[in-house]
What we know:
There is one protein chain. By secondary structure, the chain is of the alpha/beta class. It folds into two domains: about 1-325, Rossmann fold; about 330-430, ANL, C-terminal domain (GMP Synthetase, Chain A, domain 3, 2-Layer Sandwich), CATH 3.30.300. The chain is about 30% helix and about 25% strand. The strands form six sheets. A six-stranded mixed sheet has the order 4-3-5-6-7-8, with helices on both faces. Strands 10-11-12-15 form a four-stranded antiparallel sheet, covered by helices on one side. It has a four-stranded mixed sheet with strand order 20-19-18-21, sandwiched between helices. Helix 1 packs across helix 2 (about 30-40), helix 4 crosses helix 5 and helix 6 packs across helix 7 (about 180-190).
Amino acid sequence: MDIEYKSPQEIKEFQxxxxxxxLQYLQEKSPFYSRMxxxxxxxxxxxxHLEDLTRIPFTTKRDLQLHSQDILCCPKEKIIDYIxxxxxxxxxxxxxxxxxxxxRLAYNEKKSFACAGLHPGNILQLMTTxxxxxxxxxxYFLGIRELGASIxxxxxxxxxxxxxxxxxxxxxxxxxxxxFILRLIEYAESHGIDYRNSSVxxxxxxxxxxxxQNFQLNLLGCRxxxxxxxxxxxxxxxxxxxxATFSECEYGMGGHVHPELIIVEIIGEDDKPVPDGEPGxxxxxxxxxxxxxxxxxxxxxxxxxxxxQCKCGRYSYRLTPLIGRKNNMIKLKGTTLYPPAINDVxxxxxxxxxxxxxxxxxxxxxxxVVVKVGLRNADxxxxxxxxxxxDRFRSRIRVAPKIEILPSDEIHRINFPEKSxxxxxxxxxxxxx
Length: 433
């Protein structure tokens, strides 16, 4: 039986055995972690339970940037593929994958796609890059191949090519950044494509949330399904550092962990674990990674852990949709919020073509938020738009940021810089300590 369907106690004991094996591997193979154990006087033989992890220091993004060569646990001749992170939290980090790591990636995505209901016979159209040192695109390809389903590697953007492919090959599933779906729909409507009667019946979203903390579709998710009710939406959460994916099942009640691949802790502001169900920073320990395994890595992402049995029968714990990134938390006029709350308002406003959110520190030392918006109709009265948008923000999040109207082409260039693999919708100009 798949470990995800076993009891919580069985899953915990299973992970504890894998943890001891991972610690032994790190002590023998990783210069970075072996030095940490020695410096902190940690006897790894005493780390027997998941609760004992709190005795081990965190690994941070800065550690990866400064000590990647010492974190590497294998000789370079074993490395098959080099990958870099997207640089969301700073300078990109280079990761090295061995053949075993690529097999692990394939297994991870095979399970995640199966969780979302895919099986041999399904056809997935991949609308994300597989090049540019991007782990996700490669992982998706390997996972679909391992699952025995079919994949069409179209890459990101270009609605015309996406629809041409859909009409030629008839995929039942597409995988992309959810906000791109709105561009696909707009293109279809303006070119007479009957998208609601196309072959597509499943959309797997990456990089953007589709649900709120109550597992209901957020404004972006609602906007997609109102236009395209025939499709079912699935959200995922993953990162290069984790080398794992949390995918929703058909019930959409959070992303399922694969216990054989990763251990997740949720920590609070005091750096201690929070009770299950309470939000905090996601901290991960990878299992079964050969090249660059990580121990208690701080992701910077904020979510909560769900430990009740899912309707699908799995007992493996789930993560709620991301609340945001810890470093991106905003204090606007006394209200604490994360960028997704601002995104939700803008994504649900029909006349907004695109936007970018800027956060800076003002003269009083507090956060200054400016939302720069491109409009679908350039002839709209800008003063009326600003007033109406501010009213929308106040009704949803109680406060309104500053709003500037710019040509949509200018916003598009900001959203899609030449070297970026993901849309840029949030720019943090605050000085970090």
